[in-house]
Amino acid sequence: MRRSRPAVLVARRLLAVPVVLLALSTAVFLAMRLLPGSPATALSAGGGQTLTAAELSANQARVSQALGLDQPILTQYLRFLGDLVRLDLGSSFYGSNSVLGLLAGALPATIELTLLAMAIAVLLGVVSGVVAALRKGTWIDASARTVATVSFSLPWFALGVLGVVVFGVWLRWLPVIGRLPNALDYHPTTNFVLLDAILQDRPELVLPWLRYLILPATTLALSMAGFITRIVRASVLEVLGDDFVRTARMKGLAEGAVVRRHVLRNSWLPIVTVLGLQFGSLLGGSVITETVFSYPGVGSLLVKGVLQRDYPVVQGAALAIALLFTLVNVAVDLFYLVLDPRLRKG
Amino acid sequence: MSEPAVLGRRWRARAFARSWPAAIPWLVLAALVLVALAGPLLVSADPVRQTNQTLLPIGTPGHLLGTDDLGRDELARLVYGARPLLSVAFLATAVAAVFGTGIGLVAGFAGGRTEGAVMRFVDFALAFPSILLVILVVAAAGPGTVSLVSAIGVSLAPGLARLARALSAREAARDYVVAARLGGTRAPRVMVREILPNIAGPMLAQVVMTLSVAAGYAAGLSYLGLGIQPPTPDWGYMVQAGQEFLFSAPRLVVLPAALTLVLVVACNFAGDDLRDGLV
Questions:
Q1: Quick one: pLDDT at residue A297?
Q2: Which end of chain A is more exposed for a tag (fewer CB within 10 A), N or C?
Q3: Which domain, by its residues, includes B197?
Q4: Among A26-40, A325-339, B146-160, whose mean pLDDT is lowest?
Q5: Is this structure's pTM higher than 0.90?
């Protein structure tokens, strides 16, 4: 069978994005409307006050009308899609901030967090995976594998909170909550702190930013690092037995150069696969981790929205996470084409 | 009972804890389950009764682990908190095991287009941030054991379905399955009586690993305030409530968080041990 040309493959991947996004936003829409316990019931229940049945149903009717929930579901869906296309995500029930504005502040924070977490995970995972494979059968290998087993599915909230206690409370090395110190005079241009530090020429922003970010990012990274360790170890062991590695050794390359130039290069593909597969879990973890550290990202926006029954915010945050998820997976797919020439031509 | 199916059950022989270090996670799990079941009989203090003796330190006579911000006995709360967490984790894992094994078994056995379609969906569901869906479902349906168990269970089913598919596709090609089918046994019976017993071992190992994820999700949701509702004590919620006293009484956070970690890590090692013993 003839393989498609790269341009066709790229185009096909990119065309899939709106389709996946439509499916995801429909799922979010349905989750918000079809399940028992409609927003109207929740919202009209009032904050802790006891209401009479008559008051409650009057409230419900009012909220339903305001949210358009009294319309037929198809009308609601079309209106939802129309708003979505115009990027009108509504505004929060509390303080009437536009959801888009809230996301513009929160999304960069989440992207910073997840990207740094990925970088930490790759660094830890690749180093320990390679070392474990090169020292196969020794205690180093055994302990790397034990750590990888321990780190599987560690609950982020417990890990994060223990990190806070150790590094924030007992050692007092790192700040406990937030994204930047309150005293710091920061006027966001893009809301990406690193980018703003460059754009505004303020290198003094970088260090406090890193000090706040390192603990949540490491919390998020550990489980992924364990996965990457396993994958890298297995793929390095496999590649080490290949002919081209023997050839490289026989032509007198130093062991370090063999590992760097030949072994590692061939281990990148499985690592990228893991990154793509695990990014979803990382995003999910960021929801909880951000809450632990009161880190102002999309995750804590979502949780706050859920607890306050602030449905436009919940909807917007869920869509933002779905968008991020889709884009990263497309990026991973495209990255394959760059990394593996075999996928490019037949 | 057909002969090959019996032969296939080798995995039953000494599949777990074949050395003393490997026994540790099983002992820890057994201890936690025992605490969850019998714990309330062992501690006399009331886990929900509030007193004015707030934030007593560890080692106070009558309050071995001190009291929390509302003067409730911390030890009693930890002990009582084991049961809701473990029951949600076990039930959700059972839901995931039934759905996941069922879907994977049918897909692997049927093959062809059914298999392709099911596995495409499963792969997508696996990559998707499932905790997000769990949060949305629990938020919409309201917190409660039923919504927690079903949301977590359904979100963890794809991982098990994937393994069940791979295993049963392999088994479906074996002679004993072919023989049973040629002998006129109908497909559902072949799946349940011939294939299922032969994939049960590796599936069980994965189910134990899934238990660790389920426990993490359940505690994580309580931490967010979406799980078991107060005043019922629960480790996740205790961590969240204790965070306010991070500097004055870090133990309120450390103890429940550490117990959650111990539970998850014990499941990880137990699952790992089972897998080693079965392969």
A1: 94
A2: N
A3: 25-38+80-278
A4: A26-40
A5: no
Partner-chain contact A291 B224, CB within 8 Å = yes
Nearest to B129 among A32, A176, A284 (CB): A284
Domains, chain A:
6-36+89-344 (1.10.3720.10)
Q: Is A98 helix (H, G, I), strand (E, B) or coil?
A: strand
**Number of structural domains, chain B?**
1
Taking the CA of residue A210 and the nearest CA in chain B, the distance in Å comes to 22
Burial environment of residue B57 by CB neighbours within 10 A (0 to 12, 13 to 18, 19 or more)? exposed
What does the pLDDT average to over A92-102? 84
Q: Are B269 and A149 inside 8 Å of each other by CB?
A: yes
Q: Which residues of B touch A306 (CB under 8 A)?
A: 135-136, 139, 224, 226
| CATH code of residue B195 | 1.10.3720.10
> Residue A337 in contact with residue A20, Cβ under 8 Å?
no
> Quick check: B130 contacting A, CB < 8 Å?
yes
* Assembly ipTM: 0.84
B178 is a domain residue = yes
3-state SS, one letter per residue, for A197-228: HHHCCCHHHHHHHHHHHHHHHHHHHHHHHHHH
Domain membership of residue B3 (yes or no) is: no
- Which of B14, B8, B271, B30 is closest to B160 using CA atoms? B271
**pLDDT exceeds 50 at position A311:** yes
List chain B residues with pLDDT less than 50: 1-11, 13
* A-proximal residues of B, 165-204, CB under 8 Å: none
Whether residue B114 contacts residue B106, with contact meaning beta carbons closer than 8 Å, is answered with yes
Output A49 or A245, whichever has higher pLDDT. A245
What's the pLDDT at A22? Answer: 82
| CB contact (8 A) between residue B140 and residue A37 | yes
